[in-house]
Amino acid sequence: PHYRAMDIDRITKGRGVAAKLAKQLGLHRTSVLGWRQVPVRHVRKVSEITGIPMHTLRPDVYASPSEAQAA
Q1: Cα separation of 53 and 1, whole Å?
Q2: CA-to-CA distance for 17 and 21, rounded, in angstroms?
Q3: Directed axis angle between helix 17-25 and helix 43-50, to 10°?
Q4: In the predicted model, is pLDDT for residue 42 greater than 70?
Q5: Is the pLDDT of residue 62 over 90?
Q6: pTM of the model
Q7: Which of 3, 9, 50, 60 ranks highest by number of CB atoms within 10 Å?
Q8: pLDDT, position 71
Q9: How many DSSP H helices and E strands does the chain contain?
């Protein structure tokens, strides 16, 4: 099956979220806003900051818990 990564606009829709992510990742806000999807190297930290599960951010890379158990 094809899994679509979560759009960065949905992740950063709250006020100041892009700036908060950028600061905690050591990046400029415009870098974060330029992502089409969260780069794999930043998924774990973005998940910790936003509370969005890694498999929701990048289902093409991380299996959901139910898929992992079925495997």
Answers
A1: 19
A2: 6
A3: 130
A4: yes
A5: yes
A6: 0.80
A7: 50
A8: 62
A9: 6, 0
DSSP summary character for residue 19:
H
13 token code pair: 């829709």
The two three-digit tokens of residue 41, written as one number:
């190297």
Structure tokens at 61: 């890379």
Question: Quick one: DSSP state of residue 41?
Answer: G
Which amino acid appears at position 26 of this protein? G
Q: Identify the pLDDT of residue 11.
A: 83
Find, among 53, 23, 22, 16, the residue nearest to 35 by Cα.
22
The type of residue at 36 is R
Instruction: Read off the amino acid at residue 21.
Output: L
